[in-house]
Task: inverse folding
């Protein structure tokens, strides 16, 4: 994958990691624009290539009454407005074959969720749109096995593919990041570390996923030190009242300092 091939990507030649960041789910236009404006300000200041992230719908939910979205086309139109307003690319995840063609009309990158990355028809549908495809490593998969998912995309004559590690299941209610997987996956595709999902604590008895946001900088620093190509961070100005994944999201007010610290680490690593 060539970062510069993503439409409207800025600072592609800055030697920084790139950032996929935004809310877990699109809850409305005002919140999406508010988050995007702040992240664009930070990433432009630090010369970080940036892609706005937001799910247009949530399909993998713990309970039937969990928030799933505000309406598919309504949310996708908000993603388009973010792109047009701030001149940045956007990414959203898809869950069904028909989602690929629909979402491709509005966003620049299609993301395959970790639970679905072995679904060949879904991966192929995303690849055949010609959009960049982000493949999230299944929590149940080895880094080496992601090579086959990448090949499914490239066999469709689409070289715009990256992989994202979002942790591996460790027992029933926790995730760990095995940093040995980063150099392994970088051998066949640019590799992103999903910092916030790696800190989820799923399968809680309440049916609401928990998390460890206090460990965000720890995991992010380790990813940057180990030469990860990109970082994935879900952020919100009011995580406690976010409609999805609030327990593991980064409060937006902490993002600038975190990015400043990580850019300093990357500059040090680049000097070696």
Result:
């Amino acid at each position: 994958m060539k970062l510069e091939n993503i439409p409207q990507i800025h600072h592609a030649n800055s030697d920084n990691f790139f950032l996929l960041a935004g809310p877990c789910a699109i809850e409305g236009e005002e919140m999406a624009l508010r988050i995007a404006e702040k992240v664009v300000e930070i990433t432009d200041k630090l010369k970080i290539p940036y892609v706005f992230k937001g799910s247009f719908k949530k399909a993998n939910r713990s309970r039937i009454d969990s928030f799933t979205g505000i309406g598919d086309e309504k949310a996708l139109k908000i993603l388009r407005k973010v792109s047009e307003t701030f001149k940045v690319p956007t990414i959203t995840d898809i869950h069904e074959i028909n989602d690929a063609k629909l979402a491709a009309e509005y966003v620049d990158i299609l993301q395959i969720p970790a639970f679905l990355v072995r679904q060949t028809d879904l991966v192929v549908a995303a690849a055949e749109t010609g959009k960049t495809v982000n493949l999230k490593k299944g929590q149940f998969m080895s880094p080496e096995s992601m090579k086959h998912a990448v090949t499914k995309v490239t066999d469709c004559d689409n070289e715009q593919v990256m992989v994202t590690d979002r942790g591996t299941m460790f027992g029933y209610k926790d995730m760990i990041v095995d940093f040995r997987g980063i150099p392994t996956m970088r051998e066949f595709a640019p590799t992103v570390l999903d910092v916030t999902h790696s800190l989820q604590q799923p399968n809680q008895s309440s049916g609401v996923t928990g998390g460890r946001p206090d460990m965000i900088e720890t995991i992010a620093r380790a990813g940057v030190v180990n030469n990860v190509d990109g970082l994935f961070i879900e952020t919100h100005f009011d995580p406690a009242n976010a409609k999805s994944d609030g327990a593991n999201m980064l409060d937006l007010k902490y993002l600038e300092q975190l990015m400043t610290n990580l850019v300093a680490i990357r500059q040090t690593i680049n000097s070696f």
In short: The chain has a mean pLDDT of 93. The first strand starts at residue 18 and ends at 22.
